[in-house]
Design goal:
The chain is mostly helical. It contains 2 helices and no strands.
Length: about 70
């Protein structure tokens, strides 16, 4: 029965999230979306994304070399 309890809890949480999200409305969604876009376009974050991409690419090449790919 604990599995059933889990799914009931998940369903209730999803329902509550839906209701609260619907109450926030479209304007709040636009506010959050604009803030996320502003953050994404921030020059320091862009620099960090580029640097991390380089590190990831280097690690992937190194791993592929070790695997013989």
């Amino acid at each position: 029965m604990s599995g059933l309890k889990f799914w009931i809890t998940v369903a209730l949480a999803a329902g509550a999230g839906y209701v609260l999200g619907a109450r926030a409305g479209r304007s709040r969604y636009r506010d959050i979306s604009a803030a996320a876009k502003h953050l994404w376009d921030d020059p320091s974050l862009k620099k960090a994304r580029v640097q991390s991409r380089k590190v990831i690419d280097k690690a992937a090449k190194k791993a592929a070399k070790k695997l013989g790919a």
